[in-house]
Request: fold
Amino acid sequence: MASSASSATPRAGNQLDQEFACLLNHLKKKPPKLCIIPEDKAVHHSLARLYEREEELYGLILGYNLEDRGVSAPVPDAIYNPLVWADGRLMDHPLRSSCNVPFTEADANRFVDYNEFTHYQYVKQLEAKFYADLTWFRFVVKSFWGGPVECAFELTATGRPIVLVRFDIRRQHIVAMSNYVDRVKMFAYIMARHCPIEGLGPLTDIFGFTFIDCDGRRISEFEKMDRVDMGDPADITKVALITADDKRMEIQQKVQDKSQKLVMCHVLQPGMNQVIEII
Reply:
């Protein structure tokens, strides 16, 4: 029995590698596609957006999987509207000015103020909506990573909504997969640009993403820079990346737009931690 259990883990890892290889093989069959950039823009005209072709293919795969299983995308619900953050503080959310739940005396003893109360109500409603749409979220994740992954809703200690992506193998086997860090980066770009719910923005406007292994141990994570709490000890690694990026932008005399950047961290490969700009 022991030998059978030990052989299951490599097979799960091989399945992820094979499915990702299939994705890349599809890409090789397509000619390069350059994005159209106005001539007055000071950018490299000869380059397409990073992972543009992969994003296009992901959209086709997701659409096929949803149609094949008869799963519809969520209707544009106000609860999925983008959130407004500033240095880890939630400045605006869909219930900030429209919460119809009464603020009782018991609530006053539990929450510091009404804004904290409406944040709590928002998170409860978002979690309920997430699990009502769980099948769709599973396809959003599995259409990129393949079969042996699941997803769940989670909050950080400071109340930031997270999509928890769980692999069915241990993290040493996950990081040993070919180009694992590049895959996470590609997935981050796609999640930050692809708009799977009609009329709404990308999922990173609402969620961060955290990857864990079958034992619940954290592997990698990414989220928009403006969500990171600069005073939270739990975010010390992300804060260091943001501080370094702030200094770089200051040296280059550029304005820092934190809403257009993601902070990406890898527990077992800290040298690959980075800030990426979504363009």
